[in-house]
Amino acid sequence: MDLSGKVAIVTGSGRGLGLAYAEELARNGAAVVINDVDEAAAHAAAAGIVAAGGRATAVVAPVGTAETARKLVAGAVEAFGRLDVLVTNAGILRDKVLWKMTDEDFDAVIDVHLRGTFTCVREAVLRFREQGGGGRIICIGSPAGQRGNFGQTNYSAAKAAIVGMVRTWALELQRAGITVNAVCPVAATAMTETIPFLAPHIESMKRGEPLPAVIRREVGMGTPEDAAGIVSFLASEAAAGITGQALSVGGDRLALWSHPQLTATAFHDGGWSADDIAGSWGEAFAGSVESVGEEFPAELVAK
Question: Where does the Ketoreductase domain lie (predicted)?
Fold first, then answer.
């Protein structure tokens, strides 16, 4: 991948997956704007890229507001003269079951993940259209947004909505040559080490031990670096014809999520009463009802 001359913003890139994305883009020649709310982490990440021979600058600001979005795009243009790629990665967790989740828990996650994605993409698109020549938008989703996840009402809602926006933006921006895609990564980070059956494997990985094949393939989880290559690919000319898609990446697995499709259909003259539905449900629909939540190998979850 040759991203020489390209300029990218990666939100939430002081550590974890965001840092892996930023380092991957820089390794392939892009200049990178590091963003984080942690000033020390943001500047350390930018300094690390520069020390490795890349180009980077840091913008310390909380993602969510239009003001931060403008600050990020202005930072890219002031430091490097243009903007070509936006990766919306910034996020937080406030996990609680529904009946214990407060308004503040809900709003905080929606503000960073969902509003932050919207404001940053809107500002980047304004710049892309002013420059001409297209651009690349890569929004970070999650399997939780595709399948749901216990205790993550706020996070699952935000991530599902992000993929919905990606599909809409792909339609709206196609004529301008701007591609928009979602990446749903699974990696060993602070966000995944809270999952009980994954925690021991993440601890083993921290000790330098390799993850077993069942984790890297069946669960599709690995290091943040394992999930970074897809970002450089989607930022490159090789992906110019790919837009409106949601991809899953992690460990040794790369996959493409389907768009929601009708799985069963029936017709009833004059419309459907409740009794009509009850009478037809078993034959017409019961066999097509789908599961919810991520499905992991039984031998792992049982441990």
Answer: 6-194
User: Is 290 among the domain residues?
Assistant: no
Both tokens of residue 182? 């979602």
Q: Write the pLDDT tens digit of every residue in 231-290.
A: 999 999 999 999 999 999 999 999 999 999 999 999 999 999 999 999 999 999 999 999
CA-CA distances (angstroms) from residue 25 to 5, 107, 130, 171, 225? 11, 31, 23, 26, 11
Residues 6+ apart with CB under 8 A from 303: 197
pTM (two decimals): 0.94
CATH number at residue 158: 3.40.50.720
Structural domains counted in the chain: 1
Largest CA distance in the chain: 71
Catalytic annotation present for 142? yes
Active-site annotation holder among 6, 21, 142, 232: 142
Is 155 assigned a catalytic role?
A: yes
Pairing label, strands 31-36, 55-60: parallel
* Tokens representing residue 30 in the block: 């892009």
Look up tokens 């799985």; give the residue. Answer: 263
In the annotation, is 156 catalytic? no
Is residue 161 domain-resident? yes
Is residue 47 in some structural domain? yes
Q: Which of 155, 156, 232, 236 is catalytic?
A: 155
Per the domain annotation, does 297 fall within a domain?
A: no
- Tokens at residue 202, please? 């993440």
- Is residue 165 within 8 Å of 112, Cβ to Cβ? no
Q: Which of 159, 232, 236, 248 is an active site residue? A: 159
Query: How far, in Å, CA of 217 to CA of 273, rounded?
Result: 46
